[in-house]
Amino acid sequence: MTNHWCDIQNSDCIIIVGSNAAENHPISFKWVTKAIDENGATLISIDPRFTRSSSKAHIFAHMRSGTDIAFFGGMIKWVLDDMEAHPENYNMTYVTEYTNAAFLIDPEFRTAAELDGKFSGFVPGDNPHFGKYDKSTWKWQTDANGIPLKDKTLQDPNCVFQLLKQQYARYDADTVCNTTGTDKEIFLKICETYAQTGAVGKSGTIMYAMGTTQHTHGTQNIRAYAILQLLLGNIGVAGGGINALRGESNVQGSTDHCLLFHILPGYLQPPLATDTTLQDHLDRVTAGFATSDPKSASWWLNYPKYYVSLLKSWYGDNATSENDFGYEWLPKLNPGTNYSHIALFEAMAAGTIKGLFCWGQNPAVGGPNSFAERQALHNLDWLVTVDLWETETCGFWQEPGLNPADIQTEVFSLPAAASYEKEGSIVNSGRWSQWRWKAVDPPGEAKPDLDIIVELMLKVIELYQAEGGPVADAVTELRWKGWYDSPAGKYGASDLTDLVSREINGFAEVDILNEDGSTQYRKGELMATFGHLLDDGSTSSANWLYTQSYNEKDGNRQKWRDNTDDHPAGIGLYSKWSWCWPVNRRIIYNRASVDLDGHPWDAEDFVIRWMGPETKWEGDVPDGGWPPMNMEGTRYPFIMKPQGFARIFGPDLAEGPFPEHYEPLESPIDNPLSGVQNNPAITVWRPDEIGDRNKYPIVCTTYRVTEHWQAGQMTRNLPWLVELMPQAFVEMSEELAAEKHISTGELVIIKSVRGKVQAVAIVTKRFKPFQLNGKTVHQIGLPWHWGFMGLSTGDSANTLSPHVGDANTMIPEYKAFLVDIEKA
Amino acid sequence: MAKAMLIDTYKCMACRGCQVACKAWNDLPAETTVNRGTYENPPALSEKTWTRVEFREVEAGGEVAWLFRKHQCMHCTQASCVSVCPTGAAMHHGEFVLIDQAQCIGCGYCVQACPFDAVHLGEPKGTARKCTFCLDRVTDGYEPACAKACPPGAIQFGDRGELIATGKGRVGELRANGHPNARLYGETELGGLHQLYVLTDKAAAFGLPEAPRVATRNVLGQWLSGFVTAGVLAALPFWLVIKRRQEMASSRGGE
User: Fold this and answer.
1) Cβ <8 Å between A762 and B32
2) What is this structure's pTM?
3) Residue B6: in which H helix or E strand, if any?
4) What integer pLDDT is reported at residue A338 of this predicted model?
């Protein structure tokens, strides 16, 4: 989240899309309700079905799964048209001064409007429908100093603003509604209502979740929201933002600390095999952040300091300037090779990966095409699962219909402590790192994950020390032995958890002196801020974003529990409750919340404001302490971008600088917006497993319910929750049920090209057939919580979902695929 | 000052945290249920389920609405269960209605008499059981478990007079914002309820009686005279229940 759960209360208009917050983030509704009650906010729900969230909304719109870009592209078009007619209703200063709307783009660049669904530079692969882009035209024109050329009147035909208009000219209300299946009047009402947040001093927020991301164009769905928010001046302000509601309590923390394959802690980049030396890697990455504009902070130019500090944290005294701080030891990614969840399971299916650690994860239920993923587990020599219960993954060989004797995989199950049985930090969607204390001891032999991984790794290190190996140094040189096995007293730590928390913040690894010769840090002291991290090996930090979270002056700030609202505008930032990355900044990009003189757009609910050269900024921690835009020494607000401007034109993604609507891999119709059916930049893993729309005419989506949690092992074993939601179910419209002669409460079979599942039918008014250019298209939906083990068992809905992912992130397309249904 | 709860159906999002909190605090067992083609479960209140959220799908003028109402004992001032109870087990304790488990003979008159279907007989002792307003929390200054658990603050606990004022304010806001039939329920019904509702629509839309009536001893008398004419056959189950209860008590060693 750019903002925070609590900040939703400040919003004038809230869109919930790709999310069912009332069900899956019930606590968020405390703040949604407050915004409605106390701020007169309007709540808009956009969803394939009328949900518990929709029941609280002022406006509800049906939208076929997988058509967010059509919907939001239509909203962008509506706003652009209205902006032209009524610029006085919008914050045009924000658009021209803080976004790249005024940038002049390479005249050779072509939008998808000009090239029937593709942008300039497409290079087809073996299958001509899919390929990669040569992005050489996806760039802005620059002056002799390398600074982007701009037209602040936004009239130049090559400026981003005009190209945006061209890109979305096709997205008129009729075409949009024939794509999304939305009622046109409701669509227009939403455009008009939400556009009002574009007025100076108004704010609107977009709450989204997995319904947005789990598509072959998931990243571009979010880009579409971001472009709308930037046009309306809704980023950086109270009650605004792009707010990803994380699906688990610590997903934000896991991403920050690099659970995913394509990042290192703090969103640093993993080294590529082609980055031969540390300098190669740092040069390649920082070249992308180079700026010659003195007003651009381009914060990522500090990258080498964070990278070397990370290596120092991992390898300690063994990381020296002579050995590139251990860079050589790091495993490298082969450029172009995919290491995502889907790719790993394809490798298991192919027999190239023979062992798997499955840590707090249950892919036998939660993985896409879960039948295929369960089959892939059969090929493993060994499998280790670490979980609270025996999961379907751990017990995959017990699946009904299998003969365990036929399966040779050796399975180890390590019992883990639950969240209340261990101590440590947890990071919520709003980037707050909060300490959680242990309430009770874990049962039996269960241990905290940290203890398990430290014990395991110490054994692995001993084995490498004894037996050697091809890359033994990468393991034996780590700062583990003599460190994690005796944590008390290490750089002031009291125990293992405390040591790791301190390490994440970072230490001075040697005495560091001020310019006048006095001591700034003694060796082993905690770093006060990432501004003090260095690239010469004298500092360490396991995650630069968290430097300050645990410092010598304040102690462990994640333990702070003062819930007074100390913000001068009383907007509820609670800056003394836990700690928020970066540097306790509660609303990021907040320098965009003020005008060029530092006066807030919204004087009442301001985030920061300039109090003059003496007092400087008041309010939240500003995105850099530089003075306002009209003063000497200023910097542009979007400090993480090399040019300092928020990107309406975003050239970094795989499939284009603007979001373009493509149909899901499996779709009931031809793309109404262009001749390109699917996202041309995706990888199609199983071309023979694409469902035929004549055989599987119904759109299906998956979701969760309040009463169950993820793959279900934590809730399907609890009687009170099983009582509430006892069985797998599928929801469908009354019209579809009548067509198929299905009554509510009956068992039905749902089948896709990949498999079939059984579930209880809930026939409901909350699903409606879509009318798409005169064609009736039905959609159904089912929760994916069930599996074959536990107190409540049922078929896994993901047996139906495809093994295909987003072109940028590889998140699977769980949310839109084709099925058919029949009575069981 | 009489206490009460105000349940705002506009704010309730049917997460059912209240149902689980109720079972957790009162140590009530789970029921074995099936999906009957609805989110709603268990199918009804019972001796094991003292509160539940009812789900109602309605459609008017092409617009779908999903109405949620948390259902439980309403703690009536003119409480039918108290009126008809032959042993005095059902009683007022201040503003709350309780069933003294030591006095209850499991006759089931209160079950029949309750206009809200909030009292049920059953395990473990064959007695009548229902929501206690979490008296064991309220007397110690805590709010009831359901109110404590409610994420959007749809269940408010407090002084009844203040809650009525709050509720009237809410109704005014709702009427001005697209809910012309919004009303406060429970201010005067049955002499005043201690579970008050802010309803976004008519009472009937939420399955509530528009004008609930109290069952009186007089009604009971007429009913009993019917039993008398029916003779022994009618008295037999009554006697059996008492007998069973005595047996259960003696089998537990005179507990």
Assistant:
1) no
2) 0.94
3) strand B3-8
4) 87
Question: Helices A160-168 and A68-85 sit at what angle, rounded to 10 degrees?
Answer: 120
A661 and A73 Cβ atoms separated by less than 8 Å: yes
- A396 CA to centre of own chain: 29
CA distance A519 to chain B (A): 50
Per-residue buried b or exposed e for A64-75, using 16+ beta carbons within 10 Å of the residue's own CB: bbbbbbbbbbbb
B203-218 burial, b at 16+ Cβ within 10 Å, e below that, comes to bebbebeeebebbeee
Cβ–Cβ below 8 Å for A762 and B37: yes
Are B37 and A29 an interchain contact pair (Cβ–Cβ within 8 Å)? no
What is the Cα–Cα distance from A811 to B113, expressed in whole angstroms?
57
The single-letter code of the amino acid at A617 is W
Residues B74 and B175 in one domain: yes
Instruction: Judge residue A249's burial from the number of C-beta atoms within 10 Å of its C-beta, 0-12 exposed, 13-18 middle, 19 or more buried.
Output: middle
Q: A631, A602, A600: which is closest to A618 by C-alpha?
A: A600
Cα separation of A730 and A683, whole Å? 30
Same domain, B103 and B224: no
From the list A353, A336, A76, the residue with the least C-alpha distance to A230 is A76
3-class DSSP state for residue A758? strand
Query: For residue A231, how far is the Cα from the chain centroid?
Result: 22
A666: closest CA among A631, A629, A623, A695?
A: A695
Are B35 and A727 within 8 A, CB to CB? yes
What is the tens place of the pLDDT at every residue in A762-799?
999 999 999 999 999 999 999 999 999 999 999 999 99
Q: What pLDDT does B61 receive?
A: 87
Boundaries of domain holding B136:
1-214
Which of B19, B57, B67 shows the shortest C-beta gap to A724? B19
Please state the ipTM of this predicted complex: 0.92
| CA–CA distance, B168 with B7 (Å, rounded to integer) | 12
Residues B192 and B76 in one domain: yes
Query: How many Cβ contacts (< 8 angstroms) between chains A and B?
Result: 102
Same domain, B158 and B243: no
Cα A197 from Cα A15, distance rounded (Å): 11
The neighbour count for residue A675, using CB atoms within 10 Å, is 10
| Strand residue runs (E) in A57-111 | 59-62
Kindly state the tokens that stand for A320. 């020296």
Does the pLDDT value for residue A140 go beyond 50? yes
CB spacing of B151 vs A764 below 8 angstroms: no
Give residue for tokens 């790709």.
A18
Strand partners, A133: A122
What pLDDT is stored for residue B215 in this prediction?
84
Q: Half-sphere exposure of residue A647, counting CA atoms within 13 Å on the CB side?
A: 21
The two tokens of residue A601 are 């757009």
H helical segments located in A699-803: 719-724, 734-739
* Cα separation, B51 vs A613, whole angstroms: 60
- Indicate if B176 and B221 belong to the same structural domain: no
Please give the domain boundaries of chain A with CATH numbers for all domains.
5-249 (3.40.228.10), 263-334+487-558 (no CATH), 341-427+432-465 (3.40.50.740), 687-823 (2.40.40.20)
Tens digits of residue pLDDT in A410-422: 999 999 999 999 9
Q: Does residue B232 share a domain with residue B143? A: no
DSSP strand E in A147-270: where? 204-208, 242-244
**Closest CB from B36, B42, B66 relative to A745:** B36
Q: Are A159 and A104 in contact (CB under 8 A)?
A: yes
Q: Where are the beta strands (DSSP E) in A218-328?
A: 242-244
